[in-house]
Automatic annotation (TrEMBL):
It catalyses: a myo-inositol phosphate + H2O = myo-inositol + phosphate. This is Inositol-1-monophosphatase. The lineage of its organism: Bacteria, Pseudomonadati, Planctomycetota, Planctomycetia, Planctomycetales. It comes from Rubinisphaera italica. The keyword Transmembrane helix does not apply. It is an enzyme of class 3 (hydrolase). Belongs to the inositol monophosphatase superfamily. Mg(2+) 1 binds at E70, D87, L89, D214. InterPro entries: IMPase, Inositol_monoP_metal-BS, Inositol_monophosphatase-like, Inositol_monophosphatase_CS. GO terms for molecular function: inositol monophosphate 1-phosphatase activity; metal ion binding.
Amino acid sequence: MADTDSWQLMKTTAESAAREAGGVLLRWRSRFSVSEKSRSNLVTDADLDSQNTIVEILQNAFPDHRLLGEEGLSKQDSNSEYQWIIDPLDGTGNYVHGFPYYCVSIGLEYQGRLILGVIYDPTRDELYSAVEGCGATRNGESLVVSGTQSLAQAMCVASLPVAGDPEHPAFKRFVNVLPHAQTIQRLGSAALNLAYLASGNLDAFWSTTLYPWDIAAGVVIVREAGGLANGLDASALDVHQGVILATSSSQLQSELLPLLNTTPQ
């Protein structure tokens, strides 16, 4: 049955899975090995161990649910209306270098609609959670976006392609916004960017180069904290396209739209 009570139970299971996986990341931190999937696109033993931990917990609780995840995870041999979208380690580059800005991210779709999100930051022991229609929390405390309306007062974050060509449109968008924002950063974890936006620490985040597991959980958390999460042109968001503009207010979104959709000369 699809109702908020059953979704709350699913959230509790996802929170347990995220905490367990976060513990895995901390234990691996001093002893992992690193290989390269492609230049500057690192995968570690920790990613795989974390993902296996999450999958085991979710499959034991919901054996018929479908699964989609970063490290080659795709369980689609079911007619279930539920699909978990999992990133066992968002911010792998940060993790490898000991920069404490990485997390575990677990989202849930029901009939193709995002309805649940959990993000766990193991270095700060911060658990962000949301269920559609029930608000967002960090360690049980309610979250509300900053509500910042002016780009001149906004802290913005963008995800840029790893080892990308300087002529890539993503870099041009970054340059377009740079003179107008109070500050603009690239921090290396899309999921945490969205969690921080939901908690009022960031005001805007955008990217055109992500995967569904990077943003699925964070989208729910931002929306439930009162923020917006749409396509880069304010269209309806499709996380499977990997294009997102999330803001703390509609006014800020309106100010960003022409800058993000105009190619600088």
